[in-house]
Design brief:
Length: 228
Amino acid sequence: MTAGLAILAAGSSSRAGVDKVTAELGGSPVLLWSLAAAAASGAFAEIVVVAPPDRVAAIAGLVGSRAKVIAGGTSRTASSWAALDALRAHGVIAIHDAARPFATASLFSTVVAVATEYGSAVPGLAVAETVRRADLAGRAVEEIDRTGLWTAQTPQAFQRPLLERARVAAGGKSFTDDAAAVIALNEDVRLVPGERRNFKLTSIEDVAYARELADKGLVAIAAQPLPR
């Protein structure tokens, strides 16, 4: 069973104030960090990048021969379904947010291996902080038991039939991630340990922090694999 990877890069980046996909990070665009780690993992027979329809050519120029670039949809979920169509030849589909540049090759390999065996694999971290619910005025109204709570990351991987059924059941509904679409089917989703540095670049502060890590040599883009 081969695996295909979709890197979602079709978001607006409005919250970060910069184009997160093409922003410079340690001498390379953010997008290329995920591409390099995925290639280094050796887990994928094919990689596609999902870009905004009006930026397919620009992103293709950035990516070069590393991956095929396709047009995404109007929502994250629609972009995932476009990737599912583009990766028809593969039994396992992994989906990763380009805004998480520090996912390692090992994490890509792990989610593919777990999904191949169990049907799904979603990396995440157990919540360690105290969690409180607040009202609209910002007043704390409830403390939530954090036992069993996880934050979800990408790359997330699923066997193709599971994602196909999730797409049919979803109709036009959108989800915050692909695991949510599968959970809506009442299907089990297998959680695996994520990585602390696999955070998402959401704000301009996140981008600045990522650059600081790269500039200090605390993270590095994966070396490109040797030609076979």
